[in-house]
Amino acid sequence: MDATAHTPPPATATGEALEIRLDGVSKVYADGTVGVAELDLTFAAGELTVLVGPSGCGKTTTMKMINRIIEPTTGRILLGGEDVTRADPDQLRRRIGYVIQSVGLFPHQSVRTNVGTVPRLLGWDKERIRARVDELLGTVGLDPAVHGDRYPAQLSGGQRQRAGVARALAADPPVLLMDEPFSAVDPVVRERLQAEFLRLQAAVRKTIVFVTHDIEEAVRIGDRIAVMSEGGRVEQFATPAELLGRPANAFVADFVGSDRGLKRLAVTGIDPADLEQPPVLHVDDGLADARAALVRSGARWAVVLDDRKALHGWLSLDRASGSGTVREACRRMEAWVPADASLKTAFAQMLQLEAGWVAVLDGDRFLGVLTPESLHAALRRSVDGTAPEVAGAARV
Ligand SMILES: Nc1ncnc2c1ncn2[C@@H]1O[C@H](COP(=O)(O)OP(=O)(O)OP(=O)(O)O)[C@@H](O)[C@H]1O
């Protein structure tokens, strides 16, 4: 689906993202098992926070206490500053979208009826429900005319997942809880769903709590990540780049993996300060002048720009000879990335095209080039926290 092609649901007063705060929350199960102990955690409004950690560490317990599927033993849960620990659970759940791994669509109801569940409970009139359901199916990439009247069993796994997301968003809730929502589909579909979902989130900006045990998924989609250990202990709460660049302790370092440097490439953005500036030629320069300029600067190649400072190509020293203009001798620039790309995308371009450098463009305006050396410098900056992080949607 291309979520950007559709109009996002309108942000209404009820739909505005709200901060979620857990304040000294504990869960002790009837058999004495401590699922979560004394947890203080704030999920910022409009951000996607991932809870990640080994099996049994308390991720699901933490999440299900937010919509009171599991009742906390002690502590308070605040939604936009309002204490909901003793709110009516049914009322509360209508304000909180919920997406789970097995989707949880009602098998004997059509996709349309499924997606309209919460609006129906809220007493919306039929026309309004129908309009909202069709709009949302479009937003998640399902054609209402094709998929609306099907039953869940008549959809693919990825389509079911999309219908689940549409249902969770139907009443424009301020909060969305997602429990391993993409783990039941194969890795290729999963990556696509993650990318689509990030584009959707960029438009709707809900407060999302997302549970996974997969660190790759966490760093790809999270604005912030809580790495948990047994008993619901938060070992580190940080952005993906911070987590990968500076694991707080041995537990986190072990959990994020020894290839964390590589993973960091995907979450680190390009900083203009890291770009190198090769000599610049104009398309209409004469080749003799171009050669002189290259020799003078000691460079082996130059970028070629047009009147608008847009990138036209590049010229190597060995082609800067004879009469004629740069326009005739220069080559097309294959290796380039937009300024908001991740270092991983830039590095992938470099490898795929066997290029020694990658141009960075803002629209078609040339900003500079990344070389293996400047890529390395950029990665080092991501460790000291001064490199920019790429927005979620640019990571996948
Ligand atoms: N109903 C229950 N009764 C007793 N103990 C429970 C119950 N539900 C969960 N637990 C225990 O609480 C702890 C936390 O469980 P939880 O399901 O929150 O972990 P999780 O991090 O989501 O795990 P996973 O990744 O395997 O889903 C575990 O030790 C689990 O066995």
UniProtKB/TrEMBL annotation:
Domain ABC transporter residue range list: 20-256
Keyword Nucleus part of the UniProt annotation: no
UniProt keyword annotation of Transport present: yes
Key words of the record: ATP-binding, Nucleotide-binding, Transport
Enzyme class: translocase
EC number of this enzyme: 7.6.2.9
InterPro entries: AAA+_ATPase (IPR003593), ABC_transporter-like_ATP-bd (IPR003439), ABC_transporter-like_CS (IPR017871), CBS_dom (IPR000644), CBS_dom_sf (IPR046342), P-loop_NTPase (IPR027417)
Short name of any one Pfam family annotated for the protein: ABC_tran
GO molecular function: ABC-type quaternary ammonium compound transporting activity; ATP binding; ATP hydrolysis activity
Cross-referenced PANTHER family: OSMOPROTECTANT IMPORT ATP-BINDING PROTEIN OSMV (PTHR43117)
Family: Belongs to the ABC transporter superfamily.
Name of the featured protein: ABC-type quaternary amine transporter
Lineage summary: Bacteria, Bacillati, Actinomycetota, Actinomycetes, Geodermatophilales
